Amino acid sequence: MSETSSTLSVEVWRGGQNGSYQSFEVPRRASQTVLDVVTHIQRQMDPTLSYRFACRVGMCGSCAMQVNGVARWTCRTHVSKVAKDGRLRLAPLSNMPVIKDLVVDMDTFFEKIQAAHGRFKGEHTRHEPVALVKPDSPARQEADAGIECIGCGVCYSSCDVVTWRPDYLGPAALNRAWTLVNDERDVDGGRLLAVAGDAGCHSCHTQGSCTLRCPKQLSPTAGIAGLKRMAARAAMRGELGNETGGA
Ligand code: SF4
Ligand code: SF4
Ligand code: FES
User: Fold this and answer.
1) Where is the 2Fe-2S ferredoxin-type domain (predicted)?
2) What is the number of structural domains in the chain?
């Protein structure tokens, strides 16, 4: 099929949480991405359409939305791969409140990363030598495996447990915690406790939607399994105390 000789039927979510879909006919182009489609609608058809993007090259993570029911980065998703019979249905990410149209409120998502102690805590100053971490140490390899997360929310939007229990920290926050507990330079002693509670790693059902959908090919599922093992060992050694956090 020639990509330039037809149009796409695009349904786009409009309004807030109780909004509805609006239909547009958008010209098909060669090598067209879903973000190109949204941009065409906003620039040529309805300037009131709200959506987010910044880099257009899969670096910032701001363009994620649901495309035909699946959370994706729209800048890296070609229409030819996802349009079903020339149709696209675009919706905001799920598991986050809708602000307007395709824009969601990501505050809770980022607050959970904070709650999971997702910030590096070092003790060296710039006056000390750079820490030497062996590239082939098992902990370094675990940390490397999860470090490329860009906080796009695709995994979080794809996680059924987040839908069922909104206090669950979710795959991105737990992946970040796993990365940092394996960082030999980090000195935050409370991170494992923060993620070992009821709403933390033990709530994961290990079905792997997060890993299946992550556009960076990270595996939050593997990191969460690592946290479960680490937390269980720490609990057996009596290192987690009686109280555990989680959200
Ligand atoms: S783990 Fe992957 S899907 Fe989840 S926020 Fe990070 S980059 Fe996005
Ligand atoms: S594997 Fe765990 S974190 Fe990932 S989608 Fe499933 S329940 Fe959510
Ligand atoms: S616009 Fe930055 S990842 Fe898509």
Assistant:
1) 8-94
2) 2
